[in-house]
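Subject: Protein-L-isoaspartate O-methyltransferase structure
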Amino acid sequence: MSEGRAKRFPLPLNKVSQSTAGATGPVRTVLRPQLHLQQAADHAARLSAPTGLGLDSAGVRLRMVQRLQQEGLRDERVLQALSAVQRHLFVDTALATQAYEDTSLPIGHGQTISKPSVVGRMIALLLGGAQAQAGGQLGKVLEIGTGCGYQAAVLAQLAREVVSIERLRPLHDKARENLAATRAHKIRLIYGDGRLGHRPGAPYDSIIAAAGGDDLPPEWLAQLAPGGRLIAPMSQATGQGQVLVVVDHVLERGVTRFVRNAYEAVHFVPLKSGVM
Ligand code: SAH
């Protein structure tokens, strides 16, 4: 991390407070730029306490992000993005009180919303790609597995554009509803088989899969821009669970190479073929 960037941490909370526009709680007027994360969270906790569950307050998200930070998620851009998205709006009302715990939750049709720590970890790894490092952001992103749209909303905080594909029609429709209130202009939702990518939008600077298969579909590599990075959960050759796989598209002296690295074990829903 460069000196300049390190100095910007604690989080510039003015951005967090802007993203609460529409929230009715008193938190928005209280958070100030440069306020320390711990102080802000304590402050927000006190002030949001009387307003019911307080799920729409920035304080709840700040506390989640603070826990993720303590557990090792260091990238301030990712922490900022996670703190800007209201996760409870992407799950059923009955599960809303659990929305700011670091846990995956059912979203219907046998699928789950990913854990915030995993969403954060994957985006942090994507930001380490050559093109993302050069631009400081994710660029044009392809997401496979829209689900409820939560991760797409987080990606949109750090991307020029997000194209997100879902193979289950009811979830595709649900995500459209969920995202209607956010920066939907940056997110294009596609109903289709994500194993084929989305050629009309290619090439992508970043590709992220929210479902894990036994292989990497060749179309993903074909649609990854030079300098771009792909991240996907993938079953190990041994068939023993999944790991996160990162692939970089390296173009040197006119020769294309794909450099692959495996990271920690993860548990994602399966990547399936076709649409339903
Ligand atoms: N990013 C999502 C996580 C959803 S779970 C969120 O934030 O909620 C993964 C999703 O991948 C499921 O909705 C599943 O239907 C979808 N999926 C699985 N295989 C797919 C494929 N081939 N193409 C598109 N979506 C797929």
